[in-house]
Amino acid sequence: MSVLDDWTAEVRAALELAPAHPDEHKLVLDLARDVAHGVLRPAAPVSAYLLGLAVGRGADPAASAAAISELAVRWAAQRPGGAE
Questions:
Q1: pTM, rounded to two decimals
Q2: Which residues are CB-neighbours of 25 under 8 A, at least 6 positions away?
Q3: Which of helix, strand or coil describes residue 16?
Q4: Could you give the 3-state DSSP secondary structure of residue 19?
């Protein structure tokens, strides 16, 4: 993930953010996968953005991502045919 690591470091510097947590990439990528598969592909980046808002307001990243992922799983189970 060297390119991803390099890109993240550049964006963090441009936005004057602290260095990344070691599990940050996995957390966001897993969340995006769960939402894209359980809800709708365009919901993945929107959900990642909403996760960022929650974390920016002080929410725990792992707990917030888990809550969104669990919601995506419930959505998929409630909809015939799963994600579109």
A1: 0.82
A2: 1, 4, 5, 8
A3: coil
A4: coil
Report how far residue 57's alpha carbon sits from residue 40's, in angstroms, rounded to the nearest whole number: 26
Residue of 38, 35, 56, 37 whose CA lies nearest to 46: 35
Residue whose entry in the numeric block shows the structure tokens 């929410």: 59
> How would you write the pLDDT of the chain (84 residues) with one tens digit per residue?
689 888 888 988 998 988 877 788 899 999 999 999 999 999 999 999 999 999 999 999 999 999 999 999 999 999 876 555
Q: Which residue has the tokens 């990528």?
A: 29
Structure tokens at 81: 């045919």
Write b or e for each residue in 42-62: b if 16 or more Cβ atoms lie within 10 A of its Cβ, otherwise e.
Answer: ebbeebbeebeebbeeeeebe
Give the three-state DSSP class for 53.
helix
